[in-house]
Amino acid sequence: MSSQSAAVSIPGYVISPPEQASLSVAGTEERFPVHRVYCVGRNYAAHAVEMGHDPDKEPPFFFQKNPDNLVADANEFPYPKASQDVHHEIELLVALKSGGEDIDVNDALECVFGYGVSLDMTRRDLQGEMKKLGRPWEIGKAFEMSAPAGPVYPVSAVGHPAAGDIWLKVNDDVRQSGDLNQMIWKTAEMISILSGLFTLQPGDVILTGTPAGVGPVQRGDNLHGHIAGVGDLTVRVS
Ligand code: MN
To answer: How far is the CA of 4 from the centre of ligand 1 (A)?
Structure first.
């Protein structure tokens, strides 16, 4: 058993305030401060690219990770405790510079500061047990260092990526492969829908779901994620 306590006294606080979670920003020394991390469940069509409106699509569902689960400029993912089945999920990360409530889908992209490459690492065995029991997913999703992330690329540099390859290799084998245009719920739609459920804030981050091909990782594996027009993320499982 171990415990941690704040040794430094900061005026105005009974204990030292926690560190501000943040991501690096490409092209600057300044950081992107993180407020919340929203994640979208199953957001890639398994087959053809959707064209226009699909009346059969289910509403998106959301869960959250903790801001400090993000690991900025990650190059290592420590295999977590309490699981024997940890899966990789490569995801486009969206970083918001503004927020609000009930944001119109046509205005939603104006909230975006930038985009990045991230991993929604998942303790699949624990998540599966929780699903079976109808319980919340936190123990499967929101554990320490569960969201390795690369730098955020500002919209001024990368625009609003809506199409292009998204893939993940494990030790040079392609395990996940898709296209951003297979996202069932587009970035603007996700922002708009989330803003009808929560008050979005500057600093909120959205992990936008993963393409097919998720699977287990082992200690020593090298994960290489790529999103066309955004960048790469290379992480070793330790
Ligand atoms: Mn995911």
So the answer is: 30
Distance 120 CA to ligand 1 centre (A): 5
Give percent of the chain with pLDDT exceeding 70. 92
pTM here is 0.93
Reading the block at residue 175, the tokens are: 């395990």
Q: How far is the CA of 122 from the centre of ligand 1 (A)?
A: 8
Cα–Cα nearest to 203, from 92, 97, 72: 97
Using CB atoms within 10 A of its CB, is residue 166 exposed (0-12), middle (13-18) or buried (19+)? buried
Q: What is the dihedral angle through the alpha carbons of 163, 168, 174, 175, rounded to the nearest 10 degrees? A: -110
Domains parsed from the chain with CATH numbers: 22-237 (3.90.850.10)
Whole-angstrom distance, CA of residue 122 vs CA of residue 207: 13
What is the rounded distance in angstroms from the CA atom of residue 61 to the CA atom of residue 209? 10
The tokens for 227 are 């999103």
According to the model, what pLDDT value does residue 9 have?
79
What residues does the ion ligand 1 have nearby, CB within 5 Å?
89, 120, 210
Query: What digits encode the pLDDT tens for the residues 79-120?
Result: 999 999 999 999 999 999 999 999 999 999 999 999 999 999
8 Å CB contact between 67 and 21: yes
